[in-house]
Amino acid sequence: MQDADFPGAWRPDQGLSAPLFEQLRRHIADLVADGTLRAGRRLPPVRALATELGLAPHTIARAYRELEEANVVATNGRAGTVVAPRDAREKDLTSAAAAFAAAAAGRGCTLEEAVRLLEQAYERL
User: Which region holds residue 40: left if phi is over 0, alpha if psi is between -120 and 50, else beta?
Assistant: First the structure.
């Protein structure tokens, strides 16, 4: 699979209630999740992407920072921001899933109830 021409035709929607940085964060996270942007792929520099999308640089920087905190991307100083290897994200998600499972089980939730709660949380995103 070829990496996509990022950001391509995608542009944030000023009319949505979601903040612009969140729209960008979700878009990049979705592209990484579906394999469109593969591990090691370099993302555009903050200023270049801000210019291309017509956004303020701090909007791009915030999206990148939140993606880095979630281990979706890694910032390597002057070397730029790249898509992180999947194992870093899975490690964090495995820990979060274990904490959720322990909390749900400790409150008497069945697996089916816990899955339903997780599905509802996804729908609210």
Answer: left
- The pTM score is 0.71
Give the span between the Cα atoms of 60 and 49, in whole angstroms.
Answer: 7
What per-residue string of b and e applies to 43-67 under the rule 16 or more CB within 10 Å gives b?
bbebeebbeebebeeebbbbbbbbb
d(CA 86, CA 67): 13
CA 64 to mean position of chain CA atoms: 9
At 19-66, the pLDDT tens digits run 999 999 999 999 998 999 999 999 999 999 999 999 999 999 999 999
Four-residue CA torsion sign, 106, 110, 114, 117:
negative
Judge contact between 66 and 27, C-beta under 8 A: no
